[in-house]
Amino acid sequence: MVVKAGERLPFYVPFPFYLAYAAAVLEREGHQVLLVDAIAEGITEEEFLARAADFRPDAIILETSTPTIAVDLASAKSLKQRTNARIILCGPHVTVEGARILRENKFVDFAAVGEYEFVVRDLVTALASGADASTLKGVLLRKEGVVVDTGRAEPVDINQLPWPARHFLPMLNYRDGNAGLPQPSLQLHASRGCPFRCDFCLWPQVMYNGGKYRVRDPKDVVDEIEFCLKTWGFQSFYFDDDTFDIGRDRIVRLCDEIKARNIRVPWEAMCRADTCDYAMLKAMKDAGLYCLKFGVESGNQETLKRIRKNLDLGKVRQTMRECRELGIKTHLTFTFGLTGETIEDVKKTIDFAIELDPDSVQFSLTTPFPGTDFYKNLDARGLIISTDWSKYDGNATAVFRAENLSPKQLENALAEAKRRWQAHKRFRHRIHQVKGILRLLVPPTQ
Q1: Quick check: is 115 in a domain?
Q2: Which cofactor does it need (predicted)?
């Protein structure tokens, strides 16, 4: 049994990619599988536990995250009590903290670390046959009362993965996308990994262990899109890749395939602003692109260099101009508390966000997730002020002291950014209203 428990966030219900891939891999191997996403279904805890008990699983796989780990462990304990199944935890938090979690929580039997689709396949197969799981890579387990780490498995060849096991899930309940992307929206991956090395970024450092950037066959990607649109009637699709726009030739081939199938629904992708050019943007727009999401993070060039993002702000401006020219909507993300950031840098970032004038924007507090270089550097200097993991979501509460900014200054910066953005939106709306009135009053010239 493969389950997603955790907690709900309003207006954001992301698709559980890795659990759905793992379920599909297990099904392909002939295992009897049930995949439950309690969040997307909106079921009660009792309904969730009853469904698990009715299935009578031999093993239960749960994905964890840092902000939900307390809830995840409580769910795992309840599932153990109801089913007596072997409990296998996976996900970023367990990849870093797994040994401690196994020592402190006897109801947890195993952890599958890093990219786990094939790890759980091998582990479940070993458990079913009575084989020694300690010979497998990517597993934490107990042996004679001692937690044993078997070492990391190889990065997954994503072209060997089946499509996610969506048939178990309430597919029309998932919500992601920006700038008014029509919902419900299909979420899928065309690649995995990121060749860049931002010091705060969780998945490349922890889950992929620095693994290389991998891409799927564009034809198979569009086969998946076509099948899902016909099966569920999605109004759009969203490439929720780590970095979608690496390699112009591949992107153009993907767009050509979308056009060849006459797929006419809007779509969005998560990109870098300096890895796309006008030709790529034009190809994507011609294939139905609606919006691009760019992680800009800071309006200070030195800060971007310091955090190893190395994003060229001049190129960001250029890409934003080209998107506007082509009619592509944009969503930008910025974060406060980056390595070495000052109050002046914060002001530059807010000013830069307003200058760029995207269709929508997200401001957050930089989250020092365990396992990242950002966390390690702060922890080594005693700057982490809270290990209440439930606060590690970047939404409101600073969990560290920056070198040059207090927690209160960080929280105030976030509030100020949101205030100024809302004021900017109101002003922009009024300008559009005035322009509309002028068009009505002044007839076009012949």
Answers
A1: yes
A2: [4Fe-4S] cluster
Residue 446: HSE in the Cβ half-sphere, 13 Å Cα cutoff: 0
Residues 143 and 188 reside in one and the same domain: no
Does residue 159 lie within any of the structural domains? no
Residues 213 and 109 in one domain: no
- The answer to whether 280 touches 245, Cβ cutoff 8 Å, is yes
The answer to the question of residue 169 being in a domain is no
Instruction: Tell me the whole-structure pTM to 2 decimals.
Output: 0.93
Q: Quote the tokens at residue 377.
A: 């550097």
Domain around 41: 2-149
Tens-place pLDDT, residues 111-158:
999 999 999 999 999 999 999 999 999 999 999 999 999 999 999 999
pLDDT tens for each residue of 70-122? 999 999 999 999 999 999 999 999 999 999 999 999 999 999 999 999 999 99
Residue 325 placed within a domain: yes
